[in-house]
Amino acid sequence: MLLEKDFIATSYQSIETAIFEWSAPSNIALVKYWGKKERQIPANPSISFTLKNCKTITKLEVVKRNFDKLSLTGMEFSFELLFEGKPKEDFKPKIQKFFERIEQFCPFLKEYHFKIDTQNTFPHSSGIASSASGMAALAMNIMSLEKAINPSISDEYFYAKASFLARLGSGSACRSIKGEVVVWGNHAEISGSSDLFGVALTEIHQNFKNYQDTILLVDKGEKQVSSTVGHDLMHNHPFAERRFNQAHENLSKIKAILTSGNVSEFIKIVESEALTLHAMMMTSMPYFILMKPNTLEIINKIWKYRTETQVPVCFTLDAGANVHVLYPENVKEKVLQFIQDELIEYCQNGQYICDEIGNGAQDLK
Length: 365
Ligand code: DP6
Description:
Layout: E1 17-31, E2 46-64, E3 78-83, E4 86-87, H1 92-102, E5 112-120, H2 131-149, H3 155-169, E6 181-184, E7 198-200, E8 212-216, H4 227-232, H5 240-260, H6 263-282, H7 293-309, E9 314-317, E10 323-327, H8 332-343, E11 352-356, E12 362-363
Parallel strand pairs: 3-5
Antiparallel strand pairs: 1-2, 1-12, 2-5, 2-6, 3-4, 6-7, 8-10, 8-11, 9-10
This protein binds ligand DP6.
Ligand DP6 binds next to helix 4.
């Protein structure tokens, strides 16, 4: 069982220069993380499908700085940031904050200058959050640096610490390191589960292999309420305690469902979780609504189509108006036809992204 203190790097050498490059995917939660404690500890456990096509690709160039060991603590982090090849000042505060949070566990960071060169495979303005894939890709690169200066670390430690670091950047990012299904947060029935990092759930039934996720881009605008604010509103929320217990119950159920292959039971939990997430937003103080009229149009169309055709298609939502349409691979053709015929009229500029379950971060070097 890895504890926080186990993630503090203690013995390491130094290197002059190095270049690393990793991709990390986005993920879509089935049981949602909504509410957290101090230090990015989730209020309840969550589970997600790791995606394949929506990802961030990040190259990290590392150059040793000139410094005197004694003055290291007073020094600032040294990094430059390129997004799609161009300097991007707006992203720097997030990276600065990430470095501050992880420095305790990676005390070597200030010894180096970093050039971070990052891009997404999905349009930045799509409303798809890039924080999960972005923080996961950066965390993988940092771990490659740690491995370079301390080659003795095991593969298991490498991935667990990458997820641990990613979590400190953005909670859901810790579920973007591995595939195909990842649990984050202590859960009585999942051995090895931890509030500190994500663990892959094995024994997934054939019915869920290559599960499809078509993301309908309903609203590409900036969200009115950020996830950070939303999580915070779960403190003193009238339904918080009941909700956190429900997440534990739903995780037990979905774990059994993912093993047994019961798609109709899967649909019930997943859609209920999506609506519960938004119900929490609507019952916060202050309250807010992130769904748009077209989000509801799509949900109703999916329900009607499912009743009429018995095709096991369902939806989930993240903290926004976009709809993730989830379905087994063997009904892909039918569902894509349905999306074309009946749903794209509700998407902004008719845009949607086809994705499916994937395997997690990849070393591109
Ligand atoms: C609704 O991981 O973006 O997508 O930890 O503050 O960075 P921070 O929050 P974030 O929250 C994601 C919330 C969610 C549900 C989920 O992914 O589980």
